[in-house]
């Protein structure tokens, strides 16, 4: 699956576009939903039942993290989705042919407005950030911190 306008071909090289760079700056949660919206368009082109696709995505978000679930009760459309969802990191299966799957943390936070994993804030005693990051237009990243580990 390819999201349109994120990269362009310049001769034999692929280059990221402005839209692609903006996509990378989104939160992982927003990136995931952009991928899932594109997946819905792709599912429609593949003539999959969109109600079943959405139903399965929302069902994943309510499942218990790390628990095994059987594929026996899934519809054919939902079974066809398993490989894609595994590629996106939403489910884990021991083998591609496995009859069981487990939702990942990413899947269980699909409908949550909270980030999937806690983030380090770098807050000091006064509640202000203790450092900063510079991202240059050539994609070089410089991080400056006052951490005792970096002294």
UniProtKB/TrEMBL annotation:
GO terms for MF: ATPase activator activity; double-stranded DNA binding
Compartments, record wording: Nucleus
Superkingdom of this protein's organism: Eukaryota
Xref: Pfam families: Tfb2
Keywords attached to this entry: DNA damage, DNA repair, Nucleus, Transcription, Transcription regulation
GO BP terms in the entry: nucleotide-excision repair
Cellular component aspect of the GO annotation: transcription factor TFIIH core complex; transcription factor TFIIH holo complex
InterPro entries, alphabetized: TFIIH_p52/Tfb2 (IPR004598)
Protein task: Component of the general transcription and DNA repair factor IIH (TFIIH) core complex which is involved in general and transcription-coupled nucleotide excision repair (NER) of damaged DNA.
Family: Belongs to the TFB2 family.
Official protein name in the record: RNA polymerase II transcription factor B subunit 2
């Amino acid at each position: 699956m390819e999201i349109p306008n994120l990269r362009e071909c310049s001769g034999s090289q692929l280059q990221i576009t402005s839209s692609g760079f903006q996509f990378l700056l989104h939160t992982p949660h927003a990136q995931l939903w952009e991928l899932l919206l594109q997946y819905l368009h792709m599912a429609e082109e593949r003539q999959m039942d969109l109600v079943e696709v959405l139903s399965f995505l929302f069902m994943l978000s309510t499942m218990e993290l790390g628990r095994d679930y059987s594929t026996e009760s899934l519809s054919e459309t939902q079974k066809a989705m398993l490989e894609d969802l595994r590629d996106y990191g939403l489910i884990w299966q021991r083998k591609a042919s496995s009859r069981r799957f487990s939702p990942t943390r990413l899947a269980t936070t699909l409908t949550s407005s909270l980030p999937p994993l806690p983030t380090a804030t770098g807050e000091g005693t006064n509640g202000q950030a203790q450092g900063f990051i510079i991202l240059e237009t050539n994609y070089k990243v410089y991080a400056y911190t006052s951490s005792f580990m970096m002294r």
